[in-house]
Write a structure and sequence with these properties.
single chain, mainly alpha, signal
Length: 125
């Protein structure tokens, strides 16, 4: 029984190898190398504008307690505040502006506030 199984596997392997090589010889397309940009990719969500810290950096800094002087608690209290809605994206952005980590126009940037809010919502799960 084992001999028939090994012979069968050998036949299948040989037939696959023969089919693959025949198919490979039939394709004569010229593959070209795609152009690659040398500019670094910076997503708008990462750096909406010069002088902005990323929403992730803002929320993780708040979690670590960087904004305690501005009435934003850290660690579990931040998570609890985000879950209950007591701490909002606007609160975090105001605290970062007050601590000179964000420019004042960040409070009016809806895209940035939305991304901060998404980071805060990640605490809710």
């Amino acid at each position: 029984m084992k001999r028939y199984l090994s012979i069968g596997l050998a036949v299948v392997a040989i037939s696959l190898a023969a089919n693959t090589s025949v198919q490979a010889r039939g394709k004569t397309e010229m593959l070209t190398k795609p152009e690659v940009s040398t500019k670094p990719l910076i997503l708008a969500a990462d750096r909406p504008s010069l002088g902005y810290i990323t929403p992730f950096e803002l929320v993780s800094g708040a979690y670590q307690g960087q904004y305690r002087d501005h009435s934003i608690p850290g660690f579990g209290s931040l998570v609890d505040g985000a879950r209950t809605g007591k701490i909002t994206a606007q609160d975090l952005v105001r605290a970062a502006i007050d601590s000179k980590r964000l420019p004042p126009q960040a409070i009016a940037d809806r895209s940035y506030l939305g991304n901060v809010d998404l980071q805060l919502k990640s605490f809710r799960f």
